[in-house]
Design brief:
By secondary structure, the protein is mainly α. The protein has one domain: Hypothetical protein af1432 (Orthogonal Bundle), CATH 1.10.3210. The termini are far apart.
Length: 222
C-alpha cells in the first residue's frame, strides 16, 4: 500500500477517520480479487506519479482505492443509480451503462463514506472518460488507471515516455501530465476504432483539449 504523510484532518471534505487503509478495506469486498489487485496496482502507480508531479498523495490515494468500487455493478443498475442520483445521461450513456461506473462510484462514496472533497469525487467520476477541464488529481488518477501493470506494454510504454519526456531533458522538471493524457487519449481512441466500439463524445473533447494544451506549450518553446 502506498505510504503517505498527508494528514486527512487537513483535507477539506475528507472525514477525519478516513485513511488509505480504510478506503482499501471498504473497496475490497465490493469487487472481485482480480479487480482488487488492479485497484491496488493503480494506487501504487498513482502514488508514484503524484510524488513526481507534486500532487497531493492522500487525495490521489483515496481516489485510486475507491475508483472502481462500482466496476462490477450491472449496466442496468448503474443507469438506474445514475438517474436516481440526478445525473444527466446521454443516449450513449444509456446504451453503454458500464461507462457510468465512475460517476456512480462518486455518488456512492459521497453518500456512504461521507467524502465530499471535490477533487477526490471528480477524479473518481472522470477516471474512464476524462473531462474538460481536469484537476491535477484527476489527471494522475486517470493516468494511473491506464498505466497499472496489467495493461499491455504497447499501450503503457508510450504513455510513460510522454509522462517523463520533460524529466529526461531536465531532471529538475516535473512529469508532463498533459502530454501523457494526450497520448493516453490517442491510444484509447485508436483501440476503440480498431475493435469497432462506439466512441463517447466526451472522449473526443478531452483528447482535443489536451492536444490544444500540448501544442500551445510546444509553440511557446519553439
Amino acid at each position: 500500500m502506498p505510504k503517505t504523510k498527508e494528514k486527512t484532518k487537513k483535507l477539506v471534505g475528507v472525514p477525519a477517520g478516513m485513511t488509505l487503509e480504510a478506503a482499501r478495506q471498504w473497496t475490497q469486498p465490493r469487487i472481485s480479487k482480480k479487480r482488487f489487485e488492479h485497484v491496488c496496482g493503480v494506487a501504487q502507480v498513482g502514488d508514484l506519479i503524484a510524488k513526481k508531479a507534486g500532487v497531493n498523495r492522500m487525495l490521489v490515494g483515496l481516489a485510486c482505492y475507491l475508483h472502481d468500487c462500482c466496476k462490477e455493478v450491472k449496466d442496468k443498475e448503474l443507469i438506474e443509480r445514475a438517474l436516481a442520483g440526478g445525473l444527466q445521461l446521454s443516449a450513449i450513456d444509456k446504451i453503454n451503462g458500464h461507462l457510468l461506473h465512475g460517476p456512480v462510484a462518486a455518488l456512492t462514496i459521497k453518500q456512504e463514506l461521507k467524502i465530499s472533497n471535490k477533487e477526490v469525487l471528480a477524479a473518481i467520476s472522470e477516471h474512464t472518460l476524462g473531462n474538460v477541464p481536469m484537476s491535477e488529481v484527476s489527471k494522475v488518477v486517470f493516468l494511473a488507471d491506464c498505466l497499472e501493470e496489467s495493461r499491455p506494454k504497447d499501450f503503457t510504454d508510450p504513455i510513460w515516455q510522454g509522462l517523463y519526456s520533460d524529466v529526461l531533458q531536465d531532471p529538475n522538471k516535473k512529469v508532463n501530465l498533459d502530454k501523457a493524457m494526450l497520448i493516453a487519449c490517442d491510444l484509447s481512441l485508436s483501440n476503440l476504432i480498431a475493435v469497432g466500439k462506439p466512441i463517447h463524445p466526451k472522449t473526443v473533447d478531452v483528447r482535443n483539449h489536451f492536444l490544444g494544451i500540448v501544442r500551445t506549450v510546444e509553440k511557446s518553446i519553439n
